[in-house]
What we know:
By secondary structure, the chain is mainly α. It is 71% helix and 0% strand. The chain has helices at residues 2-18, 22-30, 45-63, 65-69, 74-95, 109-125. The longest helix is centred in the C-terminal third of the chain and has 22 residues, at 74-95. It is flat and about 65 Å long.
Amino acid sequence: MSSGIFVPLFLAWLWYFWTDRGGEFWSVQFGSLIQKYRFESAFNTRILLESIMMGELFLIVLLSYGTYSFRKLNQIQKYVSVLYWFLFAAGLTVLVQSDPPPVHLVLLMPSMGIFLSMTFSAFGTN
Length: 126
């Protein structure tokens, strides 16, 4: 699996190196990968409402951890923990972007969708 990640990067770098542009390859590929987050001073109501909605849904998912793993099989508890790791990783990717658009929060959607469906289905059983 790692060879599928590193071999194409190595071959691309090799071509840049042969054409005397090895440093350009690294600056293009990894130069602006991790940056500090910049808060915008401009007020945008749509982005604010989207962020509040995502924050509320994220809070619901985090506070409902007990309902996802209570009286479940060990394998299901492992699945839940893997989905929480996906949430954590997606949250970290939002923080390392200098100007993340709200579309970047789409990385949170698969695991949050599963958790929210489990939350709403638990409403009917109580």
